[in-house]
Amino acid sequence: MIYLVIFLAIASVTLFAIGVAEISPLRQRALRVRLASLQSSAQHRRVGEMRVRRQRRQHFEKMVRTFGDRVTRADDTKRKSVRLQLLRAGYRHPDAVSLYFGLRAVLAIGLPAALVLLAPLSSEPAPKILLGLIGVGMLGWLLPKLYIVRRARRRQRSVQKALPDTLDLLTTCVEAGLGLNQALVRVAEDVLPLSRDMSDELTITNLEIRAGSSRSEALRNLSARTGLSDVSSLTAMLVQTDRFGTSIAQALRVHADTMRDKRRQRAEEAAAKTSIKLLFPLVLFVFPAIFVVILGPAVFHVAEIFGSVQQG
Q1: How far is CA 58 from the centre of its chain?
Q2: Domains in the chain, ordered, with CATH?
């Protein structure tokens, strides 16, 4: 009995000592230090991985830029037109043109090279493989251009959709007493939930004015970046108003009314085109199914009647 009491006492003292050690400040401080070191090492590891990925991306961009510079070394006119297309698509990097042509060259060479590596696994004759290489190379050369054109059209639709509301906000700000530059800043902030592309264009216009460009030059650059006739008419109106000193608020109000009328006309035009656009899906997909459902049983019934007549 005495041994059992001694064993229980020793076990109780041991458990009490372990509990005190676990909840002691020194133990907690050591744990915090250990956790902080682990977090710091994990953070350093993540930073190192991000640095390696950034270095690889920079190396790839340098290689692509070198290809692009060799492709368009002496064609300045083509570079200017491509720069305008890239600006309309939202790419404003100084080396965007070189990266664009370099990416086209890499895809035009890399995709056929990958196809050549896979050619031994195919049993197709050599002429078909050669045609496939030519087609894949042309596809690799055209893919970046198609992507840029599609992205530019999407941004133009976004700007076109947000233009009437932007004009209303701009008119309200000018009539409230703000100058045109301050109104551009305020409208760029307010129109951000509606269209990020429109907000970016207005912000860039205001930054160009702050950088020292004249207001007319900044507005013309806005028209060139968007490539929309409505924006061109708006900027021309603002330039003329600024030149002749007429009321900007009144001119903006008249132009806003015109933009609302154009938006309503575009909606009516789209609604009128709906019936014509639905005609082809109806003829190709819906009507054949309806004919099969309606005439199918009748065809089987007629076939049975003719079969019975022939047997009789």
Answers
A1: 22
A2: 157-270 (1.20.81)
Residue listed under structure tokens 């900007």: 248
The mean pLDDT value of the chain amounts to: 77
Flag whether pLDDT at 78 surpasses 70: yes
Give helix then strand counts, H and E, for the chain.
Answer: 11, 0
| Token pair 């042309």: residue | 138
First-to-last alpha carbon distance for the chain, in angstroms, is: 112
Nearest CA to 143 out of 115, 103, 87 is that of 103
CA distance 36 to 39: 5
Between the ranges 5-14, 234-243, 294-303, where is the mean pLDDT highest? 234-243
**Within a 10 A sphere around the Cβ of 181, how many other Cβ atoms?**
14
Q: What is the pLDDT of residues 280-308, one digit of tens each?
A: 888 888 888 887 888 778 777 777 777 77
